[in-house]
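hey so u asked for the seq, here:
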Amino acid sequence: SSLRPHCLAHLCLLLWIPSHMPPRCSNTNIPNKLLAKDELNRILGVLGASWADSTKELYSTGLLVYHVYCDIHDIPDSQYAPIFPNLLASFLASCAGAYSGSTISNYTAAIKAWHILHGLRWNINKLEY
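ran it, structure tokens below
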């Protein structure tokens, strides 16, 4: 998919774009002023730099496994994010037995980080995963 370009693992969080991107607004006195593309890229760059490369590589693995799961189950790109609780539960259940509990937790953190990085709401109650 053009939303998931081939790239180095530590760049997946930044370069893999959800199909539904919310308009980002500035916190200026003009509440609905959309940010310019270069401002958005700077924000993404700063947020993306807040994680160590090893964390980004680990998260990219989780993101890849999640995207493969969605592809195998014919989940439309538009439903990858924001993720619904039942999709997350189904994904995590599919990982149980094949991956350790800590790996599954890292995969959940990866999906959450991807949402946050791209300005999407994370509507998952921590008690649900």
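The two ends are 28 Å apart (CA to CA). DSSP finds five helices and no strands in the chain.
lmk if thats what u needed
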